[in-house]
Amino acid sequence: MQRPAHLDPRSPFVLDTHELGRRPGSTRTVQRTVGAPEDLGTDVIGIPTGTDVELDLRLEAVMEGVLVSGSVRGRAIGECVRCLGEVVEDVDVFLTELYVYPERAAVAAEEGDEDEDVRELEGDLVNLEPALRDTVVPALPFQPLCQPDCQGLCSECGARLADDPDHSHEILDPRWSALSGLAGMQDETKES
After folding, report:
1. Model pLDDT for residues 72-87, shown as the tens digit of each residue
2. Could you say which of 6, 25, 76, 102 would form a disulfide bridge with 89 (CB–CB 3.0 to 4.6 Å)?
3. Is 167 helix (H, G, I), strand (E, B) or coil?
């Protein structure tokens, strides 16, 4: 994923760390409700774009950069993998991400300690969106269910089994079809 050339400080996912200075131990809290970014989820469940995501974060200056930690809350909506009904799942995850100062990242790269997961500060700005995605998406259920005991759909007609617990079909084995024809002839002889 490519980083934008410059972060927009007006974006709700961009945090300004200028107040922290570069004084390890200095902290600041950020509490805000933002609209969910696009694709905050998987193909079967996710937090819909624009719906509320609550951030309750703590920014702490450390020697390497700024440590961002705190809770992320939202409501994911998806589809049950068994019956295709709606699934609503409350999401409450803990985010912890270190954003390193650019010079620290450069020193680490020179020493051959390059880690692709290192996030850098851009000036005094932190782009929270990729870390938010990396925290929320793995916390979503891989196979969401509307109920833990969802029975799914009928394999013959597609009816939702939870709506009709006694639902069934009489299925004849095609190997016995010749005998069912004989049974029909026997019924005709009894009627005559």
Report:
1. 999 999 999 888 889 9
2. 76
3. coil
**Alpha-carbon gap, residue 98 to 147, rounded angstroms:** 37
Distance set, CA 143 to CA 21, 61, 135 (Å): 44, 39, 18
Instruction: Return d(Cα 144, Cα 148) in angstroms, integer.
Output: 9
Question: What three-state secondary structure class fits 20?
Answer: helix
Q: What are phi and psi of 10, to 5 degrees?
A: -85, -10
Distance, in Å, from the CA atom of 16 to the CA atom of 59, rounded to the nearest integer, reads 10
- pTM confidence score: 0.72
Alpha carbons 133 and 136: distance in angstroms, whole number: 5
- At 2 the pLDDT is 42
Please give the helix or strand (H or E) that residue 102 lies within, else none.
helix 102-110
Burial of residue 29, with CB atoms counted within 10 A of its CB: 0-12 exposed, 13-18 middle, 19 or more buried: exposed
